[in-house]
Amino acid sequence: NRGPTRLAQGPDGRFYVTDPHAGSVFIYDATLAPIGEIHGVDRPLGIAVDSQNRIFVGSASAKHIKIYSAAGDRLGVIAEGQLEMPNDMAFDLAGNLYVADSRLDRVAVFDSGLALSRTIGAGGIEDGQLKFPSSVTVAYRLDAFNNPTGEVFVADQGNYRVQVFDLNGNFLRKMGSQTVADGYDYCPTGYFNTVQSLQVDDLYRLHAADSFMNSVQIFDTQTGLCSNYYGNPYGMFGSSTGTLYLPLDIHIAPTGLVIAANHGMGRVEAIYANPQTRVGLSS
């Protein structure tokens, strides 16, 4: 695995990791032992696994999404002529597929029948607009009547923030802003340089990985406040096991461990999310 880029976990517990350098999807078991490889994928980027354990892989070269079985057999292709850069993907509970298209500055939503049903966002800097959306994840919280309410979190990388939408694509709120530092010497919490990957944990906190700062910040999803992080201090590049060097994706496993596509070190790692306090707050 020369350049792990995006990762997803299937209902069978396996991890699937894209590597555009190798042109493959690497398969690991729940302990991160390598068990297989899907060859010959044109620059694979975003990846997601549905409830049937079908593997959806976005191709940066072909500009569509390939579908594979759990055994690695190719099942078909969707979204031909509808995507430019399928950088990240996520499913909601209804089986809708959300695709962060970084070049088209939007999130494309495909229904459970895999037809394009709507888009979220458009190029721009205003609330609800996106500039190079790099990641998307869908999470659910209970409303006042204990009904699950879905929200779509989008890493708006070009605007140095995370935006939150409802499942219909209506803008709800935002968090984060551009870092006040040009280098590694001062990286306060609540600020982004290159927000790259998003995950929501069981406490409904947002984990936002910044590939330039080599750390993951934890946000209160309702207030937008952030006061701690894990990873490397002050954006330093990691070199030892358990540190981060150009993290391009994260996934919170059921065990609570954070699985990271540690691109700069060419490996996939399970790390503990040990929060550390850093100066600064942002909303």
* Mean pLDDT across residues: 91
Number of helices: 0
Strand order of the largest sheet: 19-20-21-22-26
Structural class: mainly beta
C-alpha Rg, in Å? 17 Å
- Rounded to the nearest angstrom, the distance between the terminal CA atoms is 37 Å
What is the percentage of strand-forming residues?
A: over 45%
| Estimated helix fraction | under 10%
Largest sheet, in brief, is:
5 strands, antiparallel
* Oligomeric assembly: single chain
Poorly predicted runs: 279-283
Task: Return the string of H and E elements.
Answer: EEEEEEEEEEEEEEEEEEEEEEEEEE
Number of strands: 26
Shape by Cα distribution:
globular
Folded structure, characterized:
The chain is an all-beta fold. Helix content is 0%, strand content 48%. The protein is built from no helices and 26 strands. It has strands at residues 6-9, 15-19, 24-28, 34-38, 44-49, 55-59, 64-68, 74-78, 86-91, 97-101, 106-110, 116-120, 133-142, 148-156, 161-166, 171-175, 177-178, 191-192, 195-200, 205-210, 215-220, 226-231, 247-252, 258-262, 267-271, 276-277. It has a 5-stranded antiparallel β-sheet, with no helix packed on it. A 4-stranded antiparallel β-sheet has the order 1-2-3-4, with no helix packed on it. It has a 4-stranded antiparallel β-sheet with strand order 5-6-7-8, with no helix packed on it. Strand 20 (205-210) and strand 21 form a beta hairpin. The relative contact order is 0.12.
